[in-house]
Write a structure and sequence with these properties.
Two copies of one chain form a homodimer.
Chain A: H1 5-22, H2 27-33, E1 53-54, H3 70-83, E2 97-100, H4 114-126, H5 139-144, H6 147-152, H7 154-166, H8 171-182, H9 200-211, E3 215-223, H10 224-235, E4 242-254, E5 257-268, H11 274-283, E6 289-292, H12 298-305, E7 312-317, H13 338-346, E8 349-352, H14 353-356, E9 364-365
Parallel strand pairs in A: 2-3, 2-6, 3-4, 6-7, 7-8
Antiparallel strand pairs in A: 1-9, 4-5
Helix pairs in contact in A: 4-7, 8-10, 11-12
Chain lengths: 366, 366
């Protein structure tokens, strides 16, 4: 007997709390599965773009996609303060570390974080090698497109999907599967490649900071091995400047060559209080500027601004349902609530995507 | 009743095997404690240098402290191969990753890894705050300079010393204690600051690689938080390019500010099979060149050379007892044995410190 929507929702809430409490490695997966309003994948837009390139305009104004306003002025003022030689807030180049959240800060994260779409697509791609999945949950429901069925498998189901798609293979094999997916899979709403759903104003901000001697890092709750294969091409951020959630690795020898196997054990949950930990363990230097969009980034912004000297913290506020998505305090998974209040109280910059950004996504040419 | 030397030695061997098997976080500490020939700290040379600077000569030959020979020629040939635009082995700048072991490869590691000297000195520095240490082992023996007594406390004693000196404080507090020590403590044999016991030829090699577009990383079994405070000043390697062994961190709030506490739990043992793991988890890109000096570096060199295209692997062989220390196959702790055979079999470069280096340490001026 199918459970009622209310019963499913109650179960979702309970499961999600348990998962959050246990800090599972792939929180990101639960984000999708435990979003009750989700209608399932498959709303592929008819607007299918061909092989495309992302245009990053070069102009006199390095932040040309930003409207004049408090946010843009605050960014420029900060950069000028810390780069003015002899000024009271001057920061030497090696200390100009800037950290960026990825999902919702550099690219979209709706209807679900894109890594979850990757996991689901991988289940479909791997299904021929797993005939048993036809009758084994949560794979059976997922392969039928029955998302309620997937949700019904709970925490155990989530873990099985993430384990099947993210562990057991070598790091090279996983990287290749990400490369293949990221260059072909398309967003269900916009029909764009996922890498075409990066934010043009943020690409300009990354380039502007680097032009001013900053070293730009990603510090994301998403999987580090999922981001590295494309972050350099898309953001100009090399693998060694990508920090993310990760599982443990094990060195083995296969066919006489060393390989690293992705294990189903947590290494780092790079979210919330895990972000300062990820920053210290991987970067080892406190950022002077940090950029996020949800309460999951709050500890990173607190960590960055707790250092001495000039500091900068910025939240992207998703308030543009026409051009992207609108969600904040009430969002079940990418909540922007405590962080918003703290930003207001501390005078941090809050970017209104609707008001501050001339464009959201890069222009795509075939 | 005091145990005989033979009994102590037998115990040492057993203890060391147990520790190696368990992969304790601070293997480095056991290195010192379980070296039976160690005569205890305190052999401070009368040659005490004043406040000093390390001179790094600038000359037409970027490797001027290297004698002409197979090692120097192999280094230059490799760099020319991978930097020759249009050549068959050209490597784009972002992929020019070079990883260096630290202890024994960039600076000396005898009579014991210098981090162990730091731990012992910290016990002495912290003793006034711990009156109970006067009667509590292993601290009581250490404070009396009775190394046999420290050794007699076994694995438990080692852990207590490392825990007392490396955990429980904030990362900032620990960093300050390292800064203070590294700028004042002196090597028992040479009387030099430890940072003056770096290898001049390796400083030139680091600079030569960077001048050719390489990004240089440390990948060391030593503690990452111990190396970062001075690696940039001494080696030109910034904190974010230092990978090392580490303990877990925990975010807490103290006096209204976020701090990271160093916990007494293993995060990464960045030695042997842990080095490729450290490289993948922190750097995320396979090095094209790797440099070490002992069997603890072998897996890193294997990992680097297993990639496609031109690769370079080098071992520093400590064969210069007159100017530094001589040890290799028979060394109990920094063994260079399996790696040596593999280097010969695979045609890797083995540097004879005695023959290949014109000078070992930098010239120090008051």
């Amino acid at each position: 007997m199918a459970p009622t929507t209310t019963a499913i929702y109650a179960r979702i809430v309970t499961e999600r709390r348990r998962i959050m409490a246990r800090r599972l490695p792939m929180l990101i997966a639960s984000a999708w599965l435990f979003t009750p309003s989700h209608a399932g994948p498959g709303r592929v837009s008819s607007t299918t773009l061909g092989a495309s390139t992302v245009q990053q305009g070069v102009a006199a104004d390095p932040l040309q996609s930003w409207n004049d306003g408090a946010a843009k002025r605050a960014i420029i003022a900060f950069v000028e303060r810390v780069t003015t030689q002899g000024g009271p807030d001057f920061v030497p180049v090696p200390e100009r570390i800037a950290t960026f959240d990825n999902d919702g800060t550099l690219w979209s994260e709706k209807p679900v974080p894109f890594q979850v779409m990757f996991a689901f697509d991988r289940v479909k791609a791997l299904a021929p090698q797993h005939p048993e999945w036809k009758t084994k949950e949560p794979f059976a429901s997922l392969l039928k497109g029955d998302m309620a069925g997937v949700v019904a498998t709970g925490e155990k189901g989530v873990l099985e999907i993430m384990t099947a798609t993210h562990t057991g293979m070598t790091t090279d094999e996983f990287s290749r599967s990400v490369q293949e997916w990221i260059t072909t899979a398309r967003h269900p709403k916009t029909g764009r490649l996922y890498t075409e759903m990066v934010y043009q104003p943020m690409l300009e901000l990354l380039a502007y900071l680097r032009a001013n001697g900053f070293k730009t890092f990603i510090v994301s709750g998403g999987g580090v091995e999922f981001m590295r294969p494309w972050a350099e091409r898309v953001y100009g951020i090399p693998p060694e400047q990508v920090v993310g959630s990760s599982g443990k690795l094990k060195l083995e020898t296969r066919n006489g060559r060393p390989v690293l196997i992705k294990l189903a054990e947590i290494d780092l949950v790079d979210d919330k209080e895990g972000k300062p930990v990820g920053i210290q363990s991987r970067i080892g230097r406190r950022p002077i500027a940090a950029f996020g969009n949800s309460d999951g980034d709050l500890q990173m912004l607190e960590w960055a601004t707790a250092g001495a000297g000039a500091r900068f913290a910025l939240f992207v506020h998703h308030d543009d349902d026409a051009r992207e998505f609108a969600y904040d305090r009430a969002d079940k998974l990418q909540t922007f609530n405590v962080g918003w209040d703290e930003a207001v109280a501390k005078g941090w910059t809050v970017v209104s995507m609707r008001q501050d950004w001339k464009t959201v996504f890069p222009r795509v040419t075939k």
